[in-house]
UniProtKB/TrEMBL annotation, chain A:
All copies of domain Brix, residue ranges: 129-312
Record bears the keyword Calcium: no
Protein name according to UniProt: Ribosome production factor 1
Assigned GO CC terms: nucleolus; preribosome, large subunit precursor
UniProtKB/TrEMBL annotation, chain B:
Compartment(s) where it occurs, according to its Swiss-Prot or TrEMBL record: Nucleus, Nucleolus
Biased composition (Acidic residues): 193-209, 217-231, 240-261
Protein name: Protein MAK16 homolog
Organism: Cyprinus carpio (Common carp)
Pfam assignment, any one: Mak16
Similarity-based family: Belongs to the MAK16 family.
Composition bias type Basic residues, residue spans: 266-282
Source lineage: Eukaryota, Metazoa, Chordata, Craniata, Vertebrata
Length: 336, 302
Protein backbone atom coordinates (compact mmCIF):
# COMPACT_ATOMS: atom_id res chain seq x y z
CA UNK A 1 0.00 0.00 0.00
CA UNK A 2 2.64 2.34 1.05
CA UNK A 3 4.73 1.36 -1.84
CA UNK A 4 1.93 1.99 -4.26
CA UNK A 5 1.35 5.38 -2.74
CA UNK A 6 4.98 6.12 -3.06
CA UNK A 7 5.03 5.08 -6.67
CA UNK A 8 2.16 7.32 -7.61
CA UNK A 9 3.69 10.23 -5.78
CA UNK A 10 6.96 9.44 -7.47
CA UNK A 11 5.40 9.35 -10.87
CA UNK A 12 3.83 12.72 -10.19
CA UNK A 13 6.86 14.39 -8.83
CA UNK A 14 9.37 13.13 -11.33
CA UNK A 15 11.43 16.26 -11.29
CA UNK A 16 12.58 16.13 -7.74
CA UNK A 17 15.26 13.52 -7.69
CA UNK A 18 16.21 14.27 -4.14
CA UNK A 19 12.82 13.60 -2.70
CA UNK A 20 12.68 10.36 -4.57
CA UNK A 21 15.96 9.25 -3.14
CA UNK A 22 15.01 10.24 0.39
CA UNK A 23 11.85 8.24 0.13
CA UNK A 24 13.82 5.35 -1.14
CA UNK A 25 16.16 5.57 1.81
CA UNK A 26 13.20 5.34 4.13
CA UNK A 27 11.96 2.37 2.26
CA UNK A 28 15.21 0.45 2.49
CA UNK A 29 14.30 -0.56 5.98
CA UNK A 30 11.23 -2.32 4.70
CA UNK A 31 10.93 -5.60 2.93
CA UNK A 32 13.36 -6.16 0.09
CA UNK A 33 10.52 -7.01 -2.25
CA UNK A 34 9.29 -3.48 -2.13
CA UNK A 35 12.79 -2.31 -2.75
CA UNK A 36 13.04 -4.47 -5.79
CA UNK A 37 9.80 -3.11 -7.10
CA UNK A 38 10.92 0.37 -6.50
CA UNK A 39 14.25 -0.37 -8.00
CA UNK A 40 12.53 -1.65 -11.08
CA UNK A 41 10.30 1.35 -11.22
CA UNK A 42 13.31 3.49 -10.65
CA UNK A 43 15.07 1.76 -13.47
CA UNK A 44 12.17 2.22 -15.80
CA UNK A 45 11.83 5.80 -14.79
CA UNK A 46 15.49 6.31 -15.16
CA UNK A 47 15.33 4.81 -18.58
CA UNK A 48 12.50 7.03 -19.59
CA UNK A 49 14.30 9.96 -18.08
CA UNK A 50 17.56 9.15 -19.75
CA UNK A 51 15.64 9.52 -22.98
CA UNK A 52 14.69 12.97 -21.72
CA UNK A 53 17.44 15.03 -20.08
CA UNK A 54 18.28 15.24 -16.44
CA UNK A 55 17.61 18.50 -14.63
CA UNK A 56 20.60 20.75 -14.86
CA UNK A 57 21.17 20.79 -11.12
CA UNK A 58 21.57 17.04 -11.08
CA UNK A 59 25.08 15.73 -10.71
CA UNK A 60 26.38 12.27 -10.21
CA UNK A 61 27.59 12.91 -6.72
CA UNK A 62 24.06 13.45 -5.44
CA UNK A 63 23.08 9.82 -5.81
CA UNK A 64 23.38 8.34 -2.38
CA UNK A 65 23.50 4.73 -3.44
CA UNK A 66 27.16 3.89 -4.02
CA UNK A 67 26.68 1.24 -6.61
CA UNK A 68 24.26 3.23 -8.63
CA UNK A 69 26.39 6.31 -8.41
CA UNK A 70 29.38 4.39 -9.61
CA UNK A 71 27.41 2.98 -12.51
CA UNK A 72 26.21 6.42 -13.52
CA UNK A 73 29.71 7.79 -13.32
CA UNK A 74 31.08 5.06 -15.51
CA UNK A 75 28.34 5.59 -18.01
CA UNK A 76 29.02 9.31 -18.24
CA UNK A 77 32.71 8.71 -18.60
CA UNK A 78 32.11 6.21 -21.37
CA UNK A 79 29.96 8.63 -23.24
CA UNK A 80 32.59 11.30 -23.05
CA UNK A 81 35.35 8.99 -24.15
CA UNK A 82 33.47 7.56 -27.07
CA UNK A 83 34.30 9.58 -30.13
CA UNK A 84 31.48 10.51 -32.44
CA UNK A 85 31.09 8.01 -35.22
CA UNK A 86 33.26 8.73 -38.21
CA UNK A 87 31.23 10.26 -40.96
CA UNK A 88 31.52 9.17 -44.52
CA UNK A 89 32.99 12.06 -46.48
CA UNK A 90 30.78 13.50 -49.16
CA UNK A 91 32.13 13.22 -52.65
CA UNK A 92 30.63 14.21 -55.91
CA UNK A 93 30.18 10.56 -56.73
CA UNK A 94 28.28 10.04 -53.47
CA UNK A 95 26.11 13.04 -54.03
CA UNK A 96 25.42 12.28 -57.65
CA UNK A 97 21.84 12.90 -58.63
CA UNK A 98 20.24 9.57 -59.30
CA UNK A 99 19.77 8.96 -62.99
CA UNK A 100 16.64 7.05 -63.91
CA UNK A 101 18.35 5.41 -66.81
CA UNK A 102 20.90 3.63 -64.67
CA UNK A 103 21.22 0.11 -65.87
CA UNK A 104 20.35 -2.69 -63.53
CA UNK A 105 22.45 -5.73 -64.42
CA UNK A 106 19.46 -8.04 -64.50
CA UNK A 107 17.25 -5.78 -66.50
CA UNK A 108 15.55 -7.79 -69.20
CA UNK A 109 14.70 -4.88 -71.37
CA UNK A 110 18.31 -3.82 -71.54
CA UNK A 111 19.39 -7.36 -72.28
CA UNK A 112 16.84 -7.59 -75.07
CA UNK A 113 17.93 -4.29 -76.53
CA UNK A 114 21.51 -5.31 -76.47
CA UNK A 115 20.70 -8.54 -78.15
CA UNK A 116 19.18 -6.73 -81.08
CA UNK A 117 21.07 -3.48 -81.46
CA UNK A 118 23.75 -2.62 -83.97
CA UNK A 119 26.51 -4.18 -81.94
CA UNK A 120 24.82 -7.52 -81.57
CA UNK A 121 26.58 -8.72 -84.67
CA UNK A 122 29.90 -8.05 -83.04
CA UNK A 123 28.96 -9.50 -79.70
CA UNK A 124 27.64 -12.61 -81.33
CA UNK A 125 31.00 -12.99 -82.98
CA UNK A 126 29.72 -12.58 -86.46
CA UNK A 127 32.03 -9.75 -87.45
CA UNK A 128 35.58 -8.80 -86.73
CA UNK A 129 36.41 -5.17 -86.18
CA UNK A 130 38.31 -3.27 -88.84
CA UNK A 131 38.95 0.36 -88.20
CA UNK A 132 39.66 3.18 -90.60
CA UNK A 133 41.36 6.16 -89.05
CA UNK A 134 41.46 9.46 -90.80
CA UNK A 135 41.62 13.13 -89.99
CA UNK A 136 40.07 16.39 -91.01
CA UNK A 137 41.59 18.33 -93.90
CA UNK A 138 45.26 19.07 -93.95
CA UNK A 139 46.39 17.56 -90.69
CA UNK A 140 49.45 18.87 -88.93
CA UNK A 141 52.27 16.78 -87.50
CA UNK A 142 50.86 16.17 -84.07
CA UNK A 143 47.60 14.86 -85.38
CA UNK A 144 49.33 12.65 -87.88
CA UNK A 145 51.50 11.11 -85.20
CA UNK A 146 48.49 10.63 -82.97
CA UNK A 147 46.73 8.76 -85.75
CA UNK A 148 49.71 6.54 -86.31
CA UNK A 149 49.94 5.68 -82.63
CA UNK A 150 46.27 4.92 -82.47
CA UNK A 151 46.67 2.60 -85.41
CA UNK A 152 49.42 0.66 -83.67
CA UNK A 153 47.32 0.32 -80.58
CA UNK A 154 44.07 -0.80 -82.14
CA UNK A 155 44.50 -4.01 -84.05
CA UNK A 156 43.32 -4.09 -87.67
CA UNK A 157 43.44 -0.32 -87.93
CA UNK A 158 44.44 1.56 -91.06
CA UNK A 159 45.26 5.22 -91.44
CA UNK A 160 44.22 6.99 -94.61
CA UNK A 161 44.97 10.51 -95.62
CA UNK A 162 41.89 12.57 -96.08
CA UNK A 163 42.17 14.34 -99.36
CA UNK A 164 39.33 16.70 -98.85
CA UNK A 165 36.80 13.94 -99.28
CA UNK A 166 33.29 14.20 -98.00
CA UNK A 167 32.46 11.73 -95.27
CA UNK A 168 29.19 10.84 -96.86
CA UNK A 169 31.10 9.65 -99.90
CA UNK A 170 33.73 7.89 -97.84
CA UNK A 171 31.26 5.83 -95.84
CA UNK A 172 29.81 3.72 -98.65
CA UNK A 173 33.30 2.98 -99.86
CA UNK A 174 34.32 1.83 -96.41
CA UNK A 175 31.31 -0.39 -96.13
CA UNK A 176 32.09 -1.97 -99.44
CA UNK A 177 35.62 -2.70 -98.29
CA UNK A 178 34.44 -4.33 -95.09
CA UNK A 179 35.34 -1.76 -92.48
CA UNK A 180 33.36 -1.80 -89.27
CA UNK A 181 34.47 1.49 -87.78
CA UNK A 182 35.32 4.90 -89.10
CA UNK A 183 37.28 7.17 -86.82
CA UNK A 184 37.80 10.78 -87.81
CA UNK A 185 40.08 12.93 -85.73
CA UNK A 186 39.32 16.58 -86.02
CA UNK A 187 42.09 19.06 -85.70
CA UNK A 188 42.14 22.65 -84.60
CA UNK A 189 45.25 24.77 -84.47
CA UNK A 190 47.62 21.86 -84.91
CA UNK A 191 46.12 19.90 -82.07
CA UNK A 192 43.55 17.12 -82.18
CA UNK A 193 40.38 18.26 -80.51
CA UNK A 194 37.54 16.14 -81.76
CA UNK A 195 36.74 12.57 -82.57
CA UNK A 196 33.93 11.19 -84.65
CA UNK A 197 33.42 7.50 -84.19
CA UNK A 198 31.07 5.92 -86.64
CA UNK A 199 30.03 2.31 -86.54
CA UNK A 200 29.78 1.33 -90.09
CA UNK A 201 27.11 -0.90 -91.45
CA UNK A 202 24.47 1.48 -90.15
CA UNK A 203 25.55 2.06 -86.68
CA UNK A 204 25.51 4.99 -84.31
CA UNK A 205 27.85 7.90 -84.70
CA UNK A 206 29.37 9.42 -81.62
CA UNK A 207 31.04 12.78 -81.58
CA UNK A 208 33.53 13.41 -78.79
CA UNK A 209 35.60 16.28 -77.66
CA UNK A 210 39.21 15.21 -77.25
CA UNK A 211 41.50 16.83 -74.74
CA UNK A 212 44.80 16.21 -73.00
CA UNK A 213 46.39 14.20 -75.73
CA UNK A 214 49.77 12.83 -74.74
CA UNK A 215 51.80 11.16 -77.41
CA UNK A 216 54.12 8.33 -76.64
CA UNK A 217 57.28 10.31 -76.43
CA UNK A 218 55.74 12.72 -73.96
CA UNK A 219 55.00 10.01 -71.43
CA UNK A 220 57.17 9.56 -68.44
CA UNK A 221 58.47 6.12 -67.59
CA UNK A 222 56.83 4.50 -70.49
CA UNK A 223 57.59 1.10 -71.83
CA UNK A 224 58.47 -0.09 -75.23
CA UNK A 225 56.11 0.18 -78.13
CA UNK A 226 52.99 -1.93 -78.04
CA UNK A 227 53.23 -5.23 -79.80
CA UNK A 228 50.80 -6.70 -82.23
CA UNK A 229 48.95 -8.72 -79.62
CA UNK A 230 45.32 -8.05 -79.12
CA UNK A 231 44.86 -6.10 -75.90
CA UNK A 232 42.28 -6.61 -73.21
CA UNK A 233 39.66 -4.00 -72.66
CA UNK A 234 38.52 -2.52 -69.38
CA UNK A 235 35.39 -0.41 -69.29
CA UNK A 236 34.73 1.33 -65.98
CA UNK A 237 31.74 3.22 -64.68
CA UNK A 238 29.44 3.15 -67.65
CA UNK A 239 26.27 3.02 -65.65
CA UNK A 240 23.41 4.63 -67.51
CA UNK A 241 21.78 3.44 -70.71
CA UNK A 242 23.68 6.02 -72.67
CA UNK A 243 26.89 5.05 -70.97
CA UNK A 244 26.16 1.44 -71.69
CA UNK A 245 25.77 2.01 -75.40
CA UNK A 246 28.93 4.09 -75.54
CA UNK A 247 30.74 1.38 -73.62
CA UNK A 248 29.63 -1.21 -76.12
CA UNK A 249 30.80 1.04 -78.85
CA UNK A 250 34.28 1.12 -77.41
CA UNK A 251 34.28 -2.57 -76.77
CA UNK A 252 33.45 -3.31 -80.37
CA UNK A 253 36.59 -1.50 -81.49
CA UNK A 254 38.77 -4.35 -80.33
CA UNK A 255 38.74 -7.96 -81.42
CA UNK A 256 36.98 -10.44 -79.25
CA UNK A 257 39.65 -12.67 -77.87
CA UNK A 258 42.45 -10.85 -76.16
CA UNK A 259 45.82 -12.46 -76.30
CA UNK A 260 46.88 -12.68 -72.71
CA UNK A 261 50.41 -13.42 -73.81
CA UNK A 262 50.76 -9.81 -74.82
CA UNK A 263 49.71 -8.56 -71.37
CA UNK A 264 48.35 -5.35 -72.76
CA UNK A 265 45.22 -3.66 -71.58
CA UNK A 266 43.29 -0.69 -72.92
CA UNK A 267 41.17 1.10 -70.37
CA UNK A 268 38.21 3.36 -70.90
CA UNK A 269 37.38 4.83 -67.54
CA UNK A 270 34.37 7.07 -67.14
CA UNK A 271 34.47 9.60 -64.35
CA UNK A 272 32.00 12.44 -64.18
CA UNK A 273 31.26 12.24 -67.89
CA UNK A 274 34.93 12.34 -68.84
CA UNK A 275 36.21 9.15 -70.43
CA UNK A 276 39.88 8.61 -69.75
CA UNK A 277 41.72 6.33 -72.12
CA UNK A 278 44.90 4.60 -71.08
CA UNK A 279 46.98 1.85 -72.57
CA UNK A 280 49.10 -0.25 -70.23
CA UNK A 281 51.20 -3.31 -70.05
CA UNK A 282 50.70 -5.30 -66.87
CA UNK A 283 52.59 -7.96 -65.04
CA UNK A 284 51.49 -9.97 -62.05
CA UNK A 285 54.15 -10.00 -59.39
CA UNK A 286 52.17 -12.29 -57.16
CA UNK A 287 48.52 -12.96 -56.60
CA UNK A 288 48.01 -9.76 -54.71
CA UNK A 289 50.12 -7.32 -56.63
CA UNK A 290 50.20 -6.25 -60.21
CA UNK A 291 52.51 -3.78 -61.82
CA UNK A 292 51.39 -1.65 -64.71
CA UNK A 293 53.46 0.37 -67.09
CA UNK A 294 51.93 2.87 -69.37
CA UNK A 295 52.70 2.68 -73.04
CA UNK A 296 50.87 4.25 -75.84
CA UNK A 297 49.04 7.50 -76.08
CA UNK A 298 46.52 8.73 -73.60
CA UNK A 299 43.64 11.09 -74.08
CA UNK A 300 40.34 12.08 -72.54
CA UNK A 301 37.01 12.15 -74.29
CA UNK A 302 33.81 13.94 -73.56
CA UNK A 303 30.70 12.92 -75.40
CA UNK A 304 29.09 15.69 -77.37
CA UNK A 305 26.43 13.90 -79.33
CA UNK A 306 25.24 10.47 -80.26
CA UNK A 307 23.43 10.06 -83.52
CA UNK A 308 21.56 7.09 -84.80
CA UNK A 309 22.69 5.98 -88.22
CA UNK A 310 25.90 6.86 -89.94
CA UNK A 311 27.33 10.31 -90.13
CA UNK A 312 24.77 12.84 -91.24
CA UNK A 313 24.87 16.09 -89.44
CA UNK A 314 21.96 17.73 -91.23
CA UNK A 315 19.31 15.08 -91.37
CA UNK A 316 20.49 12.64 -88.79
CA UNK A 317 18.43 11.58 -85.86
CA UNK A 318 20.19 12.47 -82.68
CA UNK A 319 19.81 10.18 -79.75
CA UNK A 320 21.57 12.48 -77.34
CA UNK A 321 23.01 15.94 -77.69
CA UNK A 322 24.88 17.82 -75.05
CA UNK A 323 22.98 20.98 -74.35
CA UNK A 324 25.06 23.25 -72.27
CA UNK A 325 22.43 25.34 -70.56
CA UNK A 326 20.27 22.43 -69.59
CA UNK A 327 22.83 19.85 -68.70
CA UNK A 328 25.65 21.83 -67.20
CA UNK A 329 23.53 23.60 -64.63
CA UNK A 330 24.11 21.09 -61.84
CA UNK A 331 27.47 19.94 -60.62
CA UNK A 332 26.12 16.61 -59.47
CA UNK A 333 24.33 15.50 -62.55
CA UNK A 334 26.09 13.24 -65.01
CA UNK A 335 24.81 11.47 -68.03
CA UNK A 336 27.19 8.67 -68.77
CA UNK B 1 28.20 72.91 -112.88
CA UNK B 2 30.23 69.82 -113.15
CA UNK B 3 33.93 70.46 -113.43
CA UNK B 4 35.62 67.05 -113.29
CA UNK B 5 39.13 68.46 -113.28
CA UNK B 6 38.41 70.71 -110.37
CA UNK B 7 36.89 67.85 -108.44
CA UNK B 8 39.89 65.70 -109.19
CA UNK B 9 42.22 68.40 -108.03
CA UNK B 10 40.39 68.56 -104.79
CA UNK B 11 40.17 64.88 -104.04
CA UNK B 12 42.66 63.23 -106.28
CA UNK B 13 46.37 62.52 -105.86
CA UNK B 14 47.82 63.67 -102.58
CA UNK B 15 44.53 65.20 -101.51
CA UNK B 16 41.91 63.99 -99.18
CA UNK B 17 39.06 61.80 -100.33
CA UNK B 18 37.04 59.87 -97.82
CA UNK B 19 36.83 56.84 -100.08
CA UNK B 20 40.57 56.71 -100.53
CA UNK B 21 42.61 53.95 -98.91
CA UNK B 22 46.33 54.48 -99.13
CA UNK B 23 48.88 51.71 -98.99
CA UNK B 24 52.61 51.85 -99.55
CA UNK B 25 52.52 51.28 -103.25
CA UNK B 26 48.98 52.00 -104.28
CA UNK B 27 45.79 53.90 -103.64
CA UNK B 28 42.46 52.19 -103.54
CA UNK B 29 38.99 53.65 -103.81
CA UNK B 30 36.29 52.30 -101.54
CA UNK B 31 33.43 53.82 -103.42
CA UNK B 32 30.91 51.10 -104.25
CA UNK B 33 30.41 52.36 -107.78
CA UNK B 34 34.08 52.28 -108.63
CA UNK B 35 34.76 50.00 -111.55
CA UNK B 36 38.37 49.02 -110.94
CA UNK B 37 38.76 49.67 -107.27
CA UNK B 38 41.84 51.82 -107.69
CA UNK B 39 41.99 55.53 -107.12
CA UNK B 40 42.72 56.92 -110.58
CA UNK B 41 41.69 59.88 -112.62
CA UNK B 42 39.75 57.66 -114.98
CA UNK B 43 38.35 55.33 -112.34
CA UNK B 44 37.01 57.84 -109.88
CA UNK B 45 33.19 57.93 -109.97
CA UNK B 46 33.15 61.37 -108.39
CA UNK B 47 35.54 62.95 -110.84
CA UNK B 48 33.92 61.52 -113.97
CA UNK B 49 30.51 62.79 -114.93
CA UNK B 50 30.00 60.00 -117.49
CA UNK B 51 30.57 56.70 -115.74
CA UNK B 52 29.38 53.05 -115.78
CA UNK B 53 29.81 50.03 -113.51
CA UNK B 54 28.70 46.44 -113.23
CA UNK B 55 27.58 45.32 -109.81
CA UNK B 56 26.20 42.05 -108.51
CA UNK B 57 23.27 41.57 -106.18
CA UNK B 58 22.12 38.15 -104.99
CA UNK B 59 23.61 36.36 -107.94
CA UNK B 60 22.32 38.81 -110.58
CA UNK B 61 24.45 41.36 -112.43
CA UNK B 62 23.33 44.91 -113.03
CA UNK B 63 24.81 47.65 -115.20
CA UNK B 64 24.87 51.09 -113.59
CA UNK B 65 25.28 54.19 -115.76
CA UNK B 66 25.76 57.82 -114.83
CA UNK B 67 25.50 60.73 -117.31
CA UNK B 68 26.11 64.38 -116.86
CA UNK B 69 22.51 65.30 -117.67
CA UNK B 70 21.42 63.81 -114.38
CA UNK B 71 24.22 65.26 -112.27
CA UNK B 72 21.80 67.66 -110.65
CA UNK B 73 19.43 64.92 -109.52
CA UNK B 74 21.35 62.69 -107.17
CA UNK B 75 18.31 60.46 -106.52
CA UNK B 76 18.07 59.55 -110.19
CA UNK B 77 21.70 59.74 -111.05
CA UNK B 78 22.43 56.06 -111.58
CA UNK B 79 20.58 54.12 -114.23
CA UNK B 80 20.27 50.42 -113.35
CA UNK B 81 19.97 47.82 -116.08
CA UNK B 82 19.53 44.16 -115.30
CA UNK B 83 21.92 42.01 -117.30
CA UNK B 84 21.14 38.60 -118.66
CA UNK B 85 22.27 35.51 -116.79
CA UNK B 86 23.88 34.21 -119.87
CA UNK B 87 27.40 35.55 -120.00
CA UNK B 88 27.56 36.09 -123.76
CA UNK B 89 24.22 37.83 -123.85
CA UNK B 90 25.21 40.00 -120.94
CA UNK B 91 28.29 41.11 -122.84
CA UNK B 92 26.16 42.05 -125.80
CA UNK B 93 23.86 43.99 -123.54
CA UNK B 94 26.77 45.94 -122.17
CA UNK B 95 27.92 46.76 -125.69
CA UNK B 96 24.46 47.81 -126.61
CA UNK B 97 24.00 50.07 -123.61
CA UNK B 98 27.44 51.58 -123.63
CA UNK B 99 27.60 52.23 -127.35
CA UNK B 100 29.55 55.39 -128.14
CA UNK B 101 30.98 55.43 -124.63
CA UNK B 102 34.73 55.68 -124.04
CA UNK B 103 36.65 52.53 -124.74
CA UNK B 104 38.12 52.36 -121.26
CA UNK B 105 34.80 52.18 -119.48
CA UNK B 106 33.35 49.63 -121.86
CA UNK B 107 36.37 47.41 -121.46
CA UNK B 108 36.47 47.64 -117.74
CA UNK B 109 32.78 46.88 -117.43
CA UNK B 110 33.17 43.70 -119.42
CA UNK B 111 36.16 42.71 -117.38
CA UNK B 112 34.25 43.24 -114.20
CA UNK B 113 31.33 41.19 -115.49
CA UNK B 114 33.69 38.33 -116.31
CA UNK B 115 35.15 38.34 -112.85
CA UNK B 116 31.75 38.40 -111.22
CA UNK B 117 30.43 35.46 -113.21
CA UNK B 118 33.55 33.50 -112.41
CA UNK B 119 33.18 33.91 -108.70
CA UNK B 120 29.48 33.15 -108.84
CA UNK B 121 30.26 29.86 -110.50
CA UNK B 122 32.78 29.11 -107.81
CA UNK B 123 30.29 29.83 -105.06
CA UNK B 124 27.82 27.44 -106.58
CA UNK B 125 30.46 24.73 -106.87
CA UNK B 126 31.60 25.15 -103.30
CA UNK B 127 28.15 24.94 -101.81
CA UNK B 128 27.82 21.49 -103.28
CA UNK B 129 30.99 20.31 -101.59
CA UNK B 130 31.58 19.95 -97.83
CA UNK B 131 31.17 23.06 -95.83
CA UNK B 132 33.11 23.73 -92.72
CA UNK B 133 31.04 24.98 -89.85
CA UNK B 134 32.88 27.10 -87.37
CA UNK B 135 31.65 26.66 -83.85
CA UNK B 136 32.64 29.38 -81.42
CA UNK B 137 34.29 28.33 -78.20
CA UNK B 138 33.30 30.05 -75.05
CA UNK B 139 36.38 30.73 -72.99
CA UNK B 140 34.50 30.46 -69.75
CA UNK B 141 33.15 27.07 -70.70
CA UNK B 142 36.51 25.84 -71.84
CA UNK B 143 38.14 26.84 -68.60
CA UNK B 144 35.37 25.23 -66.61
CA UNK B 145 35.64 21.98 -68.55
CA UNK B 146 39.38 21.90 -68.14
CA UNK B 147 39.10 22.26 -64.42
CA UNK B 148 36.42 19.64 -64.15
CA UNK B 149 38.54 17.28 -66.15
CA UNK B 150 41.44 17.73 -63.78
CA UNK B 151 39.24 17.08 -60.80
CA UNK B 152 37.73 14.06 -62.43
CA UNK B 153 41.15 12.69 -63.17
CA UNK B 154 42.15 13.00 -59.55
CA UNK B 155 38.93 11.38 -58.42
CA UNK B 156 39.30 8.56 -60.88
CA UNK B 157 42.48 7.11 -59.39
CA UNK B 158 43.13 5.33 -62.62
CA UNK B 159 46.07 3.19 -61.64
CA UNK B 160 44.29 1.80 -58.64
CA UNK B 161 41.17 1.10 -60.60
CA UNK B 162 43.07 -0.69 -63.33
CA UNK B 163 45.07 -2.74 -60.90
CA UNK B 164 41.98 -3.69 -58.99
CA UNK B 165 40.22 -4.75 -62.13
CA UNK B 166 43.15 -6.85 -63.25
CA UNK B 167 43.40 -8.57 -59.90
CA UNK B 168 39.67 -9.27 -59.95
CA UNK B 169 40.03 -10.84 -63.33
CA UNK B 170 42.88 -12.95 -62.07
CA UNK B 171 40.83 -14.15 -59.13
CA UNK B 172 37.88 -14.96 -61.30
CA UNK B 173 40.09 -17.04 -63.47
CA UNK B 174 39.71 -15.33 -66.81
CA UNK B 175 43.39 -15.88 -67.38
CA UNK B 176 43.14 -19.60 -66.96
CA UNK B 177 46.33 -21.40 -66.17
CA UNK B 178 48.79 -18.87 -67.42
CA UNK B 179 49.73 -17.57 -64.03
CA UNK B 180 50.50 -20.13 -61.32
CA UNK B 181 49.50 -18.57 -58.05
CA UNK B 182 47.47 -21.38 -56.51
CA UNK B 183 49.21 -21.20 -53.14
CA UNK B 184 47.31 -18.05 -52.31
CA UNK B 185 44.10 -19.65 -51.10
CA UNK B 186 45.98 -22.45 -49.42
CA UNK B 187 48.14 -19.99 -47.50
CA UNK B 188 45.11 -18.12 -46.30
CA UNK B 189 43.56 -21.31 -45.02
CA UNK B 190 46.79 -22.17 -43.28
CA UNK B 191 46.99 -18.83 -41.58
CA UNK B 192 43.43 -19.11 -40.39
CA UNK B 193 44.04 -22.51 -38.89
CA UNK B 194 47.12 -21.31 -37.07
CA UNK B 195 45.26 -18.36 -35.60
CA UNK B 196 42.52 -20.61 -34.33
CA UNK B 197 44.91 -23.01 -32.71
CA UNK B 198 46.81 -20.22 -31.04
CA UNK B 199 43.67 -18.80 -29.50
CA UNK B 200 42.63 -22.26 -28.39
CA UNK B 201 45.97 -22.89 -26.80
CA UNK B 202 45.75 -19.66 -24.91
CA UNK B 203 42.36 -20.63 -23.58
CA UNK B 204 43.71 -23.94 -22.49
CA UNK B 205 46.48 -22.34 -20.55
CA UNK B 206 44.13 -20.08 -18.65
CA UNK B 207 41.82 -22.89 -17.77
CA UNK B 208 44.60 -25.11 -16.62
CA UNK B 209 46.13 -22.48 -14.38
CA UNK B 210 43.06 -22.29 -12.27
CA UNK B 211 43.06 -25.92 -11.25
CA UNK B 212 45.92 -28.20 -12.13
CA UNK B 213 49.59 -28.16 -11.42
CA UNK B 214 52.18 -28.19 -14.17
CA UNK B 215 55.79 -28.94 -14.35
CA UNK B 216 57.05 -26.43 -16.85
CA UNK B 217 60.35 -26.86 -18.60
CA UNK B 218 62.82 -24.10 -19.43
CA UNK B 219 62.75 -22.35 -22.81
CA UNK B 220 65.97 -23.90 -23.98
CA UNK B 221 64.75 -27.30 -23.01
CA UNK B 222 64.68 -29.70 -25.94
CA UNK B 223 62.23 -32.40 -26.75
CA UNK B 224 64.78 -35.12 -26.87
CA UNK B 225 65.42 -34.79 -23.17
CA UNK B 226 61.76 -35.04 -22.39
CA UNK B 227 61.46 -38.66 -23.37
CA UNK B 228 63.67 -39.72 -20.46
CA UNK B 229 61.63 -37.70 -18.04
CA UNK B 230 58.48 -39.17 -19.40
CA UNK B 231 59.58 -42.65 -18.50
CA UNK B 232 60.62 -41.52 -15.07
CA UNK B 233 57.25 -39.91 -14.44
CA UNK B 234 55.49 -43.06 -15.51
CA UNK B 235 57.56 -45.08 -13.07
CA UNK B 236 56.80 -42.75 -10.19
CA UNK B 237 53.19 -43.70 -10.42
CA UNK B 238 50.94 -40.70 -9.91
CA UNK B 239 47.79 -40.81 -12.05
CA UNK B 240 48.87 -41.35 -15.62
CA UNK B 241 46.19 -39.25 -17.16
CA UNK B 242 47.14 -36.24 -15.23
CA UNK B 243 50.76 -36.66 -16.02
CA UNK B 244 50.05 -37.24 -19.64
CA UNK B 245 47.96 -34.15 -19.64
CA UNK B 246 50.78 -32.29 -18.00
CA UNK B 247 53.30 -33.64 -20.41
CA UNK B 248 51.14 -32.86 -23.32
CA UNK B 249 50.57 -29.41 -22.00
CA UNK B 250 54.28 -28.95 -21.54
CA UNK B 251 54.84 -30.26 -25.02
CA UNK B 252 52.19 -27.90 -26.27
CA UNK B 253 53.87 -25.04 -24.60
CA UNK B 254 57.18 -26.00 -26.05
CA UNK B 255 55.74 -26.39 -29.48
CA UNK B 256 53.97 -23.09 -29.06
CA UNK B 257 57.18 -21.45 -28.14
CA UNK B 258 58.96 -22.99 -31.02
CA UNK B 259 56.15 -22.04 -33.34
CA UNK B 260 56.26 -18.50 -32.10
CA UNK B 261 59.98 -18.35 -32.49
CA UNK B 262 59.75 -19.63 -35.98
CA UNK B 263 57.01 -17.23 -36.78
CA UNK B 264 59.02 -14.31 -35.55
CA UNK B 265 61.93 -15.53 -37.60
CA UNK B 266 59.73 -15.83 -40.59
CA UNK B 267 58.36 -12.35 -40.11
CA UNK B 268 61.78 -10.88 -39.81
CA UNK B 269 62.94 -12.56 -43.00
CA UNK B 270 60.05 -11.37 -45.10
CA UNK B 271 57.31 -12.83 -47.18
CA UNK B 272 58.94 -15.02 -49.73
CA UNK B 273 60.95 -17.33 -47.44
CA UNK B 274 57.66 -18.29 -45.83
CA UNK B 275 57.55 -21.37 -47.97
CA UNK B 276 60.25 -23.04 -45.90
CA UNK B 277 58.81 -22.57 -42.42
CA UNK B 278 55.32 -23.17 -43.80
CA UNK B 279 56.35 -26.67 -44.61
CA UNK B 280 57.78 -27.13 -41.15
CA UNK B 281 54.52 -25.92 -39.68
CA UNK B 282 52.77 -28.56 -41.66
CA UNK B 283 54.63 -31.13 -39.62
CA UNK B 284 53.17 -29.57 -36.48
CA UNK B 285 49.69 -29.89 -37.88
CA UNK B 286 49.66 -33.40 -36.55
CA UNK B 287 50.21 -32.17 -33.06
CA UNK B 288 47.49 -29.62 -33.47
CA UNK B 289 45.00 -32.28 -34.31
CA UNK B 290 45.76 -33.97 -31.04
CA UNK B 291 45.09 -30.74 -29.23
CA UNK B 292 41.75 -30.22 -30.85
CA UNK B 293 40.11 -32.92 -28.77
CA UNK B 294 40.88 -31.18 -25.50
CA UNK B 295 39.54 -27.70 -26.16
CA UNK B 296 36.26 -29.23 -27.30
CA UNK B 297 35.67 -30.54 -23.79
CA UNK B 298 36.84 -27.38 -22.12
CA UNK B 299 34.83 -25.06 -24.30
CA UNK B 300 31.74 -27.02 -23.39
CA UNK B 301 32.50 -26.52 -19.72
CA UNK B 302 32.45 -22.77 -20.07
Amino acid sequence: MDSTKVTTSESVSKKKGKTKKLKQKIKTDEAPVQEMEQAEIEVTENKSESGACFPPTFSVSEIKNKQRRHAMFLKLKEEKRKAPPKEVPKTIENQRIYDETTVNPEDEEVAFDEGTDEFSAYFNRLTNPKVLITTSDRPRGRTVRFCEQLATMIPHAHVYYRRGLALKRVIPQCISRGFTYLMVINEDRKVPNGLVLCHLPDGPTAHFKVSSVRLRKEMKRRGKDPTEHVPEVILNNFTTRLGHSIGRMFAALFPHDPQFVGRQVATFHNQRDFIFFRFHRYIFKNEKKVGIQELGPRFTLKLRSLQKGTFDSKFGEYEWVHKRHEMDSSRRKFHL
Amino acid sequence: MQHDDVIWDLIGNKSFCSYKVKTKTQQFCRNEYNITGLCNRSSCPLANSQYATVREEKGLCYLYMKVIERAAFPARMWEKVKLDRNYAKALEQIDENLIYWPRFIRHKCKQRLTKITQYLIRIRKLTLKRQRKLVPLSRKVERREKRREEKALIAAQLENAIEKELLDRLKQGTYGDIYNFPIHAFDKAMEKQEEETESEEEEEEDEEESGTREFVAEEEFEESDLSDFEDMNNLKGSSDEEEDAEEQSSEEEETEEELEEEKTKAKSKGKTPLKGPVRKKRAYVEIEYEQETEPAQKSKAT
